[in-house]
Amino acid sequence: MNKKLIENLYQAWNQDDPKKFDDLISEWYTIFSDPGDGWEGKTLDKDTYKTRVQFSRKAFPDLKFSVSQLIEEGDRVAVVWSAEGTQLGDLPGIPATKKKLTFAGQTVYQIKNGKVSGHWQTMDRLGLFMQTRS
Amino acid sequence: MNKKLIENLYQAWNQDDPKKFDDLISEWYTIFSDPGDGWEGKTLDKDTYKTRVQFSRKAFPDLKFSVSQLIEEGDRVAVVWSAEGTQLGDLPGIPATKKKLTFAGQTVYQIKNGKVSGHWQTMDRLGLFMQTRS
Q1: A12, A52, A123, B114: which has the fewest C-beta neighbours closer than 10 Å?
Q2: Is-contact B70 B78, C-beta < 8 A?
Q3: For the CA atoms of B56, B68, B128, B134, what is the dihedral angle to 10 degrees?
Q4: How far from A7 is each of A68, A109, B1, B88, CA to CA, in Å?
Q5: Complex-level ipTM
Q6: How many Cβ pairs closer than 8 A exist between chain A and B?
Q7: Whole-model pTM?
């Protein structure tokens, strides 16, 4: 049940407990494509993956993802999601605004041996950026 | 074969022949979510859908989509795509730059009775915008 695995992954992102990821992601996790992500193109070990999660949670300590669609075929699960959070920390080029921001994205996950092993992602970074300026 | 239908849809977008859409899209086509799209939230008849295609092709007369992944389940097909085109026309807030731009996106399509009836989309608008400024 790859869908259930991905639901658990989003639950882990919504909590502040890095250990939750240990059973969800592969030993090595590849960010195949993710424009604007500092780790794009890299393959991460688990500690680096957790560092990446903490990077997002430092910018948005109350970051919360909501999944609206899951589409599964073979070793892939596509997700339509939205996220909201209060930007209490800095983002690249954007000092903390203390604003509640919302943004939309879609992600395709690769699953190997019951663990999430990588993703391709696009999110509406311009929409997010414009909210910080409004 | 919903995947084949979606492949045909991208082929139609890559050509400049509005009639190609007649057999591909439903009488009514809903843009459920598509940040930055002027028709977001609207349900379009075929003529309005074609107007929307022409709007994109006016900005990028040589617009070409490349599909890298198709994930199908039930009445949905998720697509990972990239696009490139020379911006010979204006975009909202961005006068024609004459630059060749590339951008990435993901889209989930809804299929009803063998026709595409709507989509949810996110694309990297910030990446596109930054290329117009560089």
Answers
A1: B114
A2: yes
A3: -130
A4: 11, 12, 27, 43
A5: 0.95
A6: 85
A7: 0.96
